[in-house]
Design goal:
mainly alpha, two-stranded antiparallel sheet
């Protein structure tokens, strides 16, 4: 994000919160050799301007970080689900729909689909080596380095919830299965 864009976003945030008329002269100041930015104003004290500017900068950065963080987590979840669904197709047609079973459609294609996504899935985890091609992926930068752990915990919670519901109310799982496989 450039200094001009950051200044415009800060001014917009401050104006939205009722500070616009008081802060006509916000200026972004870059420190030599650093990515820190200071915010000053000609119409209020430097302490108040710095505090308001810092809050606005943090809000802009937090919004950008949140979108990236959630997008990354959702991407990992969807890739994981894609791999698991490809594997589940094999068992589903072998056990439940044997009369419709086709080796190419229900074994070869799901295996190829899962294998195609595995390198990308492992690659976005960071700090690993992608199998099949031997490419080393550097560790993720903070705070994204915690996303794979959060996604793993979320998937384990979902698996535990499924197992608990299946043990306590198997008819609920059967009802969901029937609703999904209708047609």
């Amino acid at each position: 994000i450039g200094a001009d864009q950051l200044r415009d976003e800060i001014n917009q945030k401050l104006a939205t919160n009722g500070y616009g008329p008081k802060l006509k002269a916000i200026r972004i100041r870059k420190y030599e050799g650093s990515s820190q930015a200071g915010v000053t104003s000609t119409e209020m004290g430097p302490g108040a301007a710095f505090t308001l500017g810092t809050v606005a900068v943090m809000e802009v950065l937090l919004q950008a970080l949140t979108v990236g963080f959630i997008g990354y987590a959702l991407g990992l979840l969807f890739a994981g689900m894609y791999i698991l669904v490809n594997i589940a197709v094999i068992g589903f047609y072998l056990r439940g729909r044997r009369d419709e079973f086709n080796v190419v459609k229900h074994i070869v294609v799901p295996i190829l689909g899962a294998l195609a996504v595995v390198p990308a899935f492992i690659g976005v985890l960071g700090g690993t080596t992608i199998p099949f091609i031997g490419v080393e992926v550097p560790p993720l930068a903070r705070p994204f380095d915690v996303v794979p752990a959060i996604v793993a915990i979320w998937m384990v919670i979902g698996l535990v919830a499924y197992l608990v519901i299946r043990a306590r109310r198997p008819e609920a799982i059967a009802t969901v299965g029937e609703a999904i496989t209708e047609g």
